[in-house]
Design goal:
Elements lengths: L18 H14 L8 H5 L5 H12 L10 H14 L3 H6 L6 H17 L22 H5 L3 H8 L7 H9 L6 H4 L21 H4 L9 E5 L5 E5 L12 E5 L13 E12 L2 E4 L5 E6 L7 E4 L23 H13 L4 H4 L7 H10 L2
Helix pairs in contact: 4-8, 4-12, 9-14
The protein binds a DNA duplex (21 and 21 nucleotides) through helix 3 and helix 6.
Organism: Coffea arabica
Subcellular location: Nucleus
GO molecular function: DNA binding
Length: 364
DNA sequence: AACCGGGCCAACCGCACCATC
DNA sequence: GGATGGTGCGGTTGGCCCGGT
């Protein structure tokens, strides 16, 4: 027996929302809140709409602090770097971009950003050299372009940890660690005793005058070459629904399995929205980014064998025979994102002095 | 001016998860 | 422990807009 429909589809209006409906919904929610029950809301509000439709309209359009319009370069960077790490988990990505909705980001990615990136990909990306452990030993553009995830973090996602400037500060505090090794395939070089603490520094976004409230992260190269991402005690407040979200990026990044090492990360994420909390089912999810030779797989799972395990899992190392074009695209984009040539894509001249400084440091 | 095709975006749909009974 | 209902997520669709012919 199938599920009962969430509403009487015959008696609900579909299609674009009229200004009157918007006003009704907005007024009702501002007065009474959602009441924790979207299904019942349209009836109470006098709307002939499905509760889900109301929720979507509110979250994606009507709620306060929604940002519409052009995405900034910083937002591009965040989207790309997160996409490279976690794939199409739009809600999670949206949580890092205040005022942006998952739908917005999804559309933006599918219609613009992906194409922007794909436009940079050579004809046959599979013929490109793999991510190289000889990072920084060659200066050819191509080899630089396909260096490693370390570059991704250099250029693309310093917000994961700190501002570019605070990266410097953080790393300077621990001179025994070469920052690029934290994400280099050659994890053997990670100093297991080194700890990088950036808790007191502003996030990358904050450093760039964005509204980002991303919690500074801590990297803990733990024992056995584990890298541990630890959030600070401070909750970040960056949910796309304008609420406060708290992200504690997981417990560990563990090197295992892969010849070059892999990055294994679990994270917890919870949102607190207008008086009610919902713990996302992503809790305890783990993702794995292998970057020893190439990005070889991205695996989702919460250890319970649910659907997250079915996220695209791709092997580009030549031992996959069932990779679809779509998956190729995904990996192509990921690979590209992982390249140092992101700076080309992201308009190098727009880089802040600090980030250039950071790159210089990283590439030291 | 009419037609066509592509891009973009709001909205819908189906599914999975979680809480409650 | 199973059934049910509510919620959230990601993929897909449909329609509008705009530029090109």
């Amino acid at each position: 027996m199938g599920r009962a429909p969430c509403c009487d589809k015959a008696n609900v209006k579909k299609g674009p929302w009229s200004p009157e409906e918007d006003a009704k919904l907005k007024e009702f929610i501002e007065k009474f809140g959602t009441g924790g029950n979207w299904i019942a809301l349209p009836q109470k509000a006098g709307l002939k709409r499905c509760g889900k439709s109301c929720r979507l309209r509110w979250l994606n359009y009507l709620r306060p602090n929604i940002k519409h319009g052009e995405f900034s370069d910083d937002e591009d960077r965040i989207i790309c770097s997160l996409y490279a790490s976690i794939g199409s988990r739009w809600s999670i990505i949206a949580a890092q971009l205040p005022g942006r909705t998952d739908n917005d980001i999804k559309n933006y990615w599918n219609t613009k950003l992906k194409k922007k990136l794909m436009g940079m990909i050579p004809l046959d990306p599979r013929k490109l050299p793999p991510f190289s452990n000889s990072l920084h030993t060659t200066s050819s553009p191509q080899s630089q372009a396909f260096s490693s995830l370390s570059q991704l973090y250099n250029d693309c996602s310093p917000y994961y940890s700190t501002s570019a400037k605070s990266c410097l500060t953080g790393f300077e505090s621990f001179p025994s660690v070469q920052p690029n090794l934290l994400f280099n395939g050659n994890n053997n070089n990670v100093n297991p005793m080194a700890t990088i603490t950036a808790a007191n520094h502003h996030s990358y976004l904050q450093g760039h005058n964005q509204e980002g409230l991303i919690s500074p992260m801590q990297f803990y190269p733990g024992k056995d070459n584990m890298l541990i991402f630890g959030g600070t005690d401070q909750a970040s407040c960056s949910s796309s629904d304008g609420s406060c979200s708290q992200i504690s990026y997981g417990k560990e990044i563990k090197q295992e399995h892969m010849n070059g090492g892999s990055l294994h990360q679990g994270y917890n994420l919870s949102n607190s929205t207008n008086g009610y909390d919902h713990h996302h089912h992503q809790e305890n999810q783990k993702f794995m980014v292998d970057y020893g030779n190439q990005i070889s797989s991205t695996t989702w799972g919460d250890g319970r064998g649910n659907d997250h395990d079915q996220k695209p899992s791709v092997v580009l190392c030549g031992n996959s025979t069932s990779t679809t074009q779509l998956q190729y695209d995904l990996e192509e984009v990921k690979q590209l994102i992982s390249s140092s040539n992101m700076s080309l894509f992201f308009n190098d001249e727009n880089k802040t002095h600090e980030s250039r400084e950071a790159m210089y440091y990283y590439n030291y």
